[in-house]
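Help!! Second protein's tokens look totally different from the first
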Amino acid sequence: MTVHYLSETSSQMYADVVVGTPIVYGDGYLYFFTDTNGNGEADEDEASRNNAYASFTPAPLEAAYNYQVSQEDPGGYAHNPRYHIQLLFDSIEALNQELSDGGVDMSGMARDASGHFAFNADAFRHWDEDGEVSASCSKCHTAEGLPFFLEHDTTIAFDPSNSMSCATCHNTSNPEFALYPVTEVGFPSGAVVSYGEESGSNMCLNCHQGRESTISVNAAIASAGVGDDEVSEALTFRNPHYYSAGASWFGTEVQGAYEYDGIDYNSAYEHTRRFNECTDCHQPHELEVQFGECTECHEEVETAADLALIRAHPEDAERFDYDGDGDDSEPIRDEIATFEGLLLELILEYGNETVGTPIAYDPVAYPYFFLDTNENGIADPDEANFGNRYNQWTPSLLRAAYNYQYIAKDPGVYAHNADYGMQVLYVSIVTLGGEEAAEGLFRPEIDYYE
């Protein structure tokens, strides 16, 4: 079923139900006619100027205009297909709002491309005003950046891209359109890892690795030269970046999260033999999880939304109430969320009581941690701006805030490496708030995967 057809169907439903005068589309001018016999088709005696539809209200008129725009550009699929889809999607949605039964089912439709082709996402639009994507960002945020990096082992600035392209990952001069060969990948910590020399998932690791690590956080703290609870103007928030799924999966092998000295953490997460690489679970272009593959082991998964219901350990394994709420069967994502909430509370408390300068957090405004000028514990709109960024960092606060942000910005950590995520959060909680702050919590044991 095409979007064109859905748009026409939506218009017919609206005209029939809301306006009360059925409409039909035909080939002749003026294209939209009164459906006198109500059969949903423009019969020969109906498709005439004398029978032109004359009961337009604003909503169907706007939708009809967009429908005709798309019809009259038969090459729209090549000229600007995304624009046409957006016009038609918005038109259907607008008409549906007036229909009591919801109108056309749009649950399987998408207005915009997703994942690597999400052309209107901040991942590609962030640099539009600058007119250039800097060398530090171009590898992952332009179509040309990654192949340039793979060929030259360095990055340069590029013009902003609409999204990635096929040639970002595939060698278009190769008759088989093969992926560029990537046998191993370096991480910000200096670690070099691989899913195997022949694995296409190594390509994913080039970008889904974060931009900081235990090493860089330690270097910043060492440079400041202050004690754990001493404020230094030399310290600023180190942003781990976003969707560092590869770093989470490899765990302590790459130290993408901040790992406290002298404490062990899990290494790479061995899920099952069938699901041990990025593309075993994710559709490589849209990044959506192929949830149908999960049902063999996780019977509760019937839709993509059900992935959040997964419990990490099978029914016959020893179960743990990680977050101490008395429920050892809740989704593992919920267990992690409790750890996150506790750590954020401690961060706010530490800023207020230990540093003496209240701190507030906003999950979408960079650099995320701000001066809480009215001391209400919330980053209000007038506080969540770069000029009001938090500037009273101590090493202890920086480590904890870094780990909070690291887990928050890998929303799939419950699947990528849940135990590692909870280990990271647990140690942050204990270090910042003391043993009593972790009362009732259980830190996952170390698994030494073969």
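Here's the second one for comparison:
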Amino acid sequence: MPLHEITRERREPRRRTLTVAVIDRLSPTMLRVEFTCDDFADFVSPAHDDHIKLFFPGPGGPETGKPLMRDFTPRRFDVAAGMITIDFAIHEEGPATDWATSARPGDTLEIGGPRGSTIVPDDFDWYLLIGDETALPAITRRVEELRDGVPVTSFVVVADPTDAQSVETRAAWTPHWLVRTRPDADASMLRTALDAHELPSGDGFVWIAAEGTVAKAIRGYIVEERGHPRQWVKASGYWSRGEVNAKVKIED
């Protein structure tokens, strides 16, 4: 395979029923739920930012209401053991937050996917990962999975210093945790921090995920102002301020 070749996979999604095994409060705004699954043998998630659909009870309850779907990243999984871990960023309200904060061992939840994957190879000289709390599962999974000794730097905006996470990794990880000063300050905080960060020499990949306008602004900054190759940047709008379950398309 040529160096730095980004590949894409598509697959037919299928539903599975998960059962809550362990619940762990990582921080005031992050809840980790470990699930078991009896039908997990062909589960595939090759990319750190894969998305699975979680189906939550809608208005009217599970018997009569249409389920509400939300996207989540498989934080960690073990096909042989039939285990999958999902981290929930806790907000003031919403079906995912409501379900996660009331979940107990033995509860069940349906998932679907991943439908597809964009696989960034682990052959770059360095990696830069940028985002907010919603990006933490993908960022920490990437840091955890990268090869021995490769430099990886992350800049993550969080609500509170206690939201910072530690990760066991073979990579040479340098985390930067930026504590949010106001709801609309993420883009300016990230830009200020990145202004002081010198991009290493060699070929690097930059990954960005945050509120849509933030991700778009930081992508523009990295490509247009810092001159990083466009094909080695991936940016995603994981949510949109003021909208429910909305994503913002970031043009390539």
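Reply: Different proteins will give different token patterns, so don't panic. The first strand starts at residue 7 and ends at 10.
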